[in-house]
Amino acid sequence: IKMIRPRLLTLRSCKVMGRGSHSSTAATHSLKDIKQMVPAAVKRSRTDVLCALSSTVGKDPTAPHFQFIDDPAMIPSTLNAKRSYFMAKEMGARAARELAIEWPTLFAFDRDEPRLEVFRPRGNADPLQMEAKEENLLPLIESRSVKDACMLYERIRSDGVDISEKAKDSLFALASYYNNEDAPLLEMEEWHGLRNLAFNKSTNWTSGGVGDLVYESLPVSPLRKAILVTALCKHHSTASAERALALYKELVEADAASIPSRTFAAIISISKW
After folding, report:
1. Which of 94, 112, 137, 248 has its CA 20 to 30 A from that of 120?
2. What confidence tens digit (pLDDT) does each residue in 208-232 have?
3. Model confidence over 73-102: pLDDT tens digits?
4. Per-domain residue ranges for the chain?
């Protein structure tokens, strides 16, 4: 009996191995027969996962602003307390940033590898010190530093330096939209507390400013004229409203179909009927 048992075990193991080899061979053949095993990828945007997570959580209308959730024990309840909280927190962050920009050598010791230039403090460019050329003007336009861009353009214009028509168009649109002033607090993307609690300040159109100077240096076109009409209506006064209506009549006589909808809305906003 002792001799028979090892033989039986050997026979059983051989049968199992034989079955396993046959099954693996069959599985290999079946995998080869399958042409498409992975479905086509579904195109998704960067925020689809966030939207899916957000759909599982309902909104609480009684919850405080996310700016206050850092310290639940000090969540303000009145408008004045919220304003003070917003200003204290954001002004502290802005003061720290100005300190890093003013004395960047104090923050020269970096541990990050690779070095990330986007997180390094940089000093504010002085339009009176930089070279008067188009390469220095374009970054100011892109960052919406309206006053600095206007100051640098006046230097470029006084030095007789030529810049491209594309750069002039960008500066004209920027200076006209903001009336030669920096972007208001309502449009600040970073400091949401100031944006939420700021007040809109209306200004009258600055006649003879950079917007007018750039417009006069460019060839007349319906689009440029429409931009000027919109800006005159946005920063309207009695004189600017009359000028906007006169330019609008010229646009209608030339080609009314090419007038942008925002220009129609601007004219309606200053109309008296």
Report:
1. 137
2. 899 999 999 999 899 999 999 999 9
3. 888 888 888 888 888 888 888 888 888 878
4. 77-122, 124-200, 219-273
3-state DSSP assignment of residue 180: coil
Alpha carbons 168 and 153: distance in angstroms, whole number: 9
Q: Give the pLDDT confidence score for residue 79 in this predicted structure.
A: 81
For 101, the token pair is 């920009």
CB of 230 closer than 8 Å to CB of 262: yes
pTM beyond 0.85: no
Q: What is the C-alpha separation between 63 and 68, in angstroms, rounded?
A: 10
Structure tokens at 81: 């307390």
Query: 119 near 96, Cβ under 8 Å?
Result: no
Q: What's the pLDDT band for 8 if we cut at 50, 70, 90?
A: very low
Q: Which is nearest to 150 in space by CA: 62, 73, 193, 211? A: 211
Question: CA-CA distance, 149 to 163, in Å (whole number)?
Answer: 13
Q: Which amino acid does the sequence have at 90?
A: E
The sign of the CA dihedral 215, 219, 220, 226 is negative
The first and second tokens of residue 109, run together, are: 């010791």
Task: Find, among 200, 212, 201, the residue nearest to 239 by Cα.
Answer: 212
Q: Specify the pLDDT at position 10.
A: 47
Q: How far is CA 240 from CA 74, 107, 210, 221, in A?
A: 49, 49, 15, 19
Q: Pinpoint the alpha helices (H) of 128-199.
A: 134-142, 146-159, 165-178, 192-197
